[in-house]
Specification:
By secondary structure, the chain is an alpha/beta fold. The chain has a domain at 44-146: Glutaredoxin (3-Layer(aba) Sandwich), CATH 3.40.30. Helices cover 27% and strands 25% of the residues. The protein has helices spanning 52-61, 76-91, 107-112, 139-146, and strands at 10-14, 21-25, 48-49, 66-71, 97-102, 120-125, 128-134. The strands form two sheets. It has a five-stranded mixed sheet, sandwiched between helices. The protein has a two-stranded antiparallel ribbon with strand order 1-2. The longest helix is centred in the middle third of the chain and has 16 residues, at 76-91. The protein binds zinc ion (ZN). Residues 15, 17-18, 20, 35, 37-38, 40 line the site of zinc ion (ZN).
């Protein structure tokens, strides 16, 4: 059996089920990471819901670009873009981490990032905002934002 050396791509994310913060290795995303606490799968091939408190930690800990969709349930363009974002997260699982933050539930987080219109997409690299896009983004715009276009 051959051993392919891979570089670990750690990130800390919140388990959507039990809300425990988990350190996962994105280079092994195809092996199906599970929550250390409740053992349920942490699915990273789709956007993860983030909260105000865990968002910071995930951005700070991420070794890959993090794309955050600041949205609201009542926002038509946000809903229209959701399938695109799902597909993007699936296509780039392990290379880009896609998060969604509900600005109605987490207004403090929206204020911290100066969100004035939704959807707003912010790409973070090395813990800092790298690029920002306000309004709907298509697949090409998402790639450019994430820095993989
Ligand atoms: Zn869990």
């Amino acid at each position: 059996m051959s051993v392919t050396p891979t570089t670990a791509l750690p990130v800390t994310v919140r388990c959507p089920f039990c809300l425990t913060m988990n350190r996962v290795d994105l280079s092994r995303v195809d092996q199906g990471p599970r929550c250390g606490e409740c053992k349920r799968p942490i699915l990273l091939d789709r956007p993860l819901q983030a909260g105000a408190d865990d968002l910071e930690e995930t951005i700070r800990s991420a070794s890959v670009p993090v794309l955050v969709d600041f949205y609201a349930d009542w926002c038509g363009p946000c809903r229209a873009m959701a399938p695109l974002l799902d597909a993007f997260a699936g296509a780039h699982a392990g290379r880009v981490l896609v998060l969604k933050l509900d600005t109605d539930r987490h207004p403090a987080a929206a204020a911290r990032y100066a969100i004035r219109g939704i959807p707003t997409l912010i790409a973070f690299e090395h813990g800092r905002e790298a690029r920002r896009h306000v309004g709907m983004a298509d697949a090409a715009a998402l790639k450019t934002l994430a820095g993989i276009g």
